[in-house]
Structure formats: C-alpha cells, structure tokens
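I have been asked to look over a protein record a colleague put together. Alongside the sequence sits a line of tokens, each denoting a local backbone shape. I have pasted the whole thing underneath without changing anything:
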Amino acid sequence: MRKALGHTHRITSVACALYNGSRILALSTNGASVHAERNATGIAKYPAGAVAYVARARKDGSRGLARPCPVCRGRLILAGVVRVYYTTYTGYAMEELPQPARRYPPLIQGEQYA
C-alpha cells in the first residue's frame, strides 16, 4: 500500500499496484481517460492470483476512498486478481474477489462439446 500511495502525485491521485507474493507485477496511475486498475491489468503479463492495492491521496496528503468502480472491479476479476486492498477515509479496507468461472470445463475422456 505504501508503494501505491507513494506513486500518487498531484495530477493523478489514484494509483494501483499488483503484487504476486513479494514481486511487483504492475504499478500504474490514472491516465487521461483510463483508471489505474485498467492500466495495471494491461501492464501485468500474468496477473492471475495477484493482489491489488489501490490508493487515493488528496492534495493535502490525506487518504481518500479508492474503492474500484464496477467496471474496474470486473476487469480485476477477469484478470484473475484474488483480493483488493483500497484506502478509505480512515484507513484501509479489503475485498475478496470472486474468481471467474471457466468458460469450458476440462473434457472428461470420451466426451465432446456440443
């Protein structure tokens, strides 16, 4: 979370960091028309199983609410991110993300898709 908070600056106040274990997969901020979460999932090569940290810093240095919007939450789920930590006005919050269902289950020997 410190890395995400440290990555925010005056122009773009939201940052997203994707971690897998102790390895940073992606670190991004809001763009002109793209949210930080979308940038991070686009940068990371293999985000499945990662944990996302989303932080918002105000101009006065205090934290703001950085809960991912429904579109970004969906993008994180499709990317395979398992958990999101985000800043709130008083501290941090965590949300477990559901994992997307497989499109096609593995074939059992002798079965075929219709």
In short: The chain has a mean pLDDT of 81. Helices lie at 2-7, 36-43, 70-79.
